[in-house]
Amino acid sequence: MSLCQIFVCATPGEGRCGEKGGNELLEHFRSEVERRGLSPSAVLRNVCTRRHEEGPVVFVYPDDVWYTRVTAGEVDGILDRHLARTRA
Ligand code: FES
After folding, report:
1. How do 5-9 and 43-46 pair as beta strands?
2. Is 5 in the pocket of ligand 1 (CB under 6 A)?
């Protein structure tokens, strides 16, 4: 089974994802992954990839999908789309 991982950018700094809600978004992903009984390693903090103009950004590996201006309301849908198959 391939392990899918969600990288959430929460880099601090003016105009960066952390300032645009990246930390809260990361916590949302972590809480929801825990609630679903998925591995905590499915969600990781990402470093700046120079996309913060559209932040907060989320990258899904290995699906190679980027999400921009992500809100807490999108967390469920992203997990459903990419992590459903990684359930133990
Ligand atoms: S701080 Fe998130 S892409 Fe730069």
Report:
1. parallel
2. no
Kindly state if the Cβ of 33 falls inside 6 Å of ligand 1. no
Secondary structure element (H or E) that encloses residue 80, with its range: helix 75-83
In short, whether 48's Cβ falls inside 6 Å of ligand 1 is yes
**Range 5-73 classified under CATH 3.40.30.10:** yes
* Spatial separation of the C-alpha atoms in residues 58 and 47, rounded to whole Å: 11
Q: Please, what's the largest Cα pairwise distance for the chain?
A: 39
Whether the CB-CB separation of 29 and 8 falls below 8 Å is answered with yes
From the list 74, 8, 82, the residue with the least C-alpha distance to 45 is: 8
What's the pLDDT tens digit per position in 24-59? Answer: 999 999 999 999 999 999 999 999 999 999 999 999
Which pTM value belongs to this model? 0.92
CA angle 25, 62, 72 (to 5 degrees): 15
